[in-house]
Specification:
311 residues; Elongation Factor Tu (Ef-tu), domain 3; 2 domains; six-stranded parallel β-sheet; 10 helices
């Protein structure tokens, strides 16, 4: 798979593809339908399978003072798309120039001149261009003029008729409903990052933790979760099982929002490791205990719940 950050860099052999276009934050089941539709087209007519996406997310560009909301920051999004088997990912920088680009110009200069797209695929509600004036009707209309085919992929929904959407996933995570969020994502929600050193309080009370900054990830409901962690740079290593706290550690007057994970039966050093940590079960909300001893007693109970989950 190849990743391009600039249109002029795209090699001729990587053009003329079936291009799925979208923000794809979360790469949930609805997004996968769009991307896989492009893959089906690419296989049928033997052309590159391409995904076109944007970074930063337009919502971050327009309102950079918003609370963190990403389901998949850039690195995680690219990894999820890569796992689907695409040939090419094109990541356009969403800046002032792209923001002011008229929809018609975007079609001509990006899709036609830049990518030489033979087939463009987008979700039914995709909008683009200055003031979001571009839509699927425009993509279809201009395709007839400029020589590319276009497919709008209808909404994907669950058995109850709920449409798969990134906004819904964020809401569910903030409510602590990771089971329903998992159904829309098609996998457990996970947070990826490098383990940082901390105050080592957990080690002192018998529960050493691996601490990861939440960065630009949406904040799930603060509380205790059953987790499973994978070594991103060493995928052959067995995953770790444990429990984690997401929050600010009010018992010790913590301020920084962290993911702190304690892994069962693990004695090694994780500092500097890049872990991908899946949230599997919400146990309880974060709370402030009267002292560290009371907190340690509750952690022992949380670990019992966690171990039972994996049995």
């Amino acid at each position: 798979m190849k990743i391009y950050r600039h249109l002029p860099d795209i090699l001729t052999r990587d053009k003329l593809g079936a291009v799925a276009i979208g923000n794809f934050d979360g790469v949930h089941l609805g997004h996968k339908r769009v991307i896989k539709e492009a893959g089906d087209v690419a296989r049928i007519i033997n052309i590159p399978w391409t995904v076109l996406t944007f970074e930063p997310h337009p919502r971050e560009f327009f309102r950079n003072n918003l609370p963190p909301f990403r389901l998949t920051p850039f690195r995680a999004k690219v990894q999820r798309i890569k796992e689907l088997g695409v040939d090419v990912i094109v990541v356009l920088k969403f800046d002032l120039q792209l923001c002011h680009c008229e929809a018609e110009a975007f079609i001509k200069h990006v899709l036609v001149d830049g990518l030489a797209a033979r087939h463009v695929i987008a979700g039914y509600d995709f909008h683009f261009g200055h003031k979001r004036k571009g839509d699927c009707s425009m993509l279809l209309q201009f395709g007839k003029k400029l020589g590319y085919d276009f497919t709008a992929v209808s909404a994907a929904s669950d058995d109850g008729g709920g449409i798969y959407a990134s906004t819904k996933i964020r809401e569910l995570l903030q409510e602590g409903d990771i089971v329903r969020a998992r159904k829309i994502l098609g996998r457990p929600f996970s947070i990826s990052g490098i383990v940082k050193s901390g105050a080592r309080l957990g080690r002192k009370i018998g529960y050493p933790t691996a601490n990861i900054s939440l960065g630009s990830y949406v904040r799930p409901r603060f509380g205790i979760y059953v987790v499973r962690a994978f070594f991103e740079l060493n995928p052959d290593l067995p995953p770790l099982q444990g429990v984690a706290n997401i929050g600010t550690r009010p018992t010790v007057n913590g301020k920084q929002e962290l993911l702190e994970s304690f892994f069962f039966d693990f004695k090694g050093d994780l500092y500097g490791q890049r872990l991908n940590i899946e949230l599997l079960k919400f146990i309880r909300p974060e709370e402030k205990f009267p002292d560290v001893k009371a907190m340690a007693s509750q952690i022992a109970k949380d670990c019992e719940v966690g171990r039972a989950y994996f049995q």
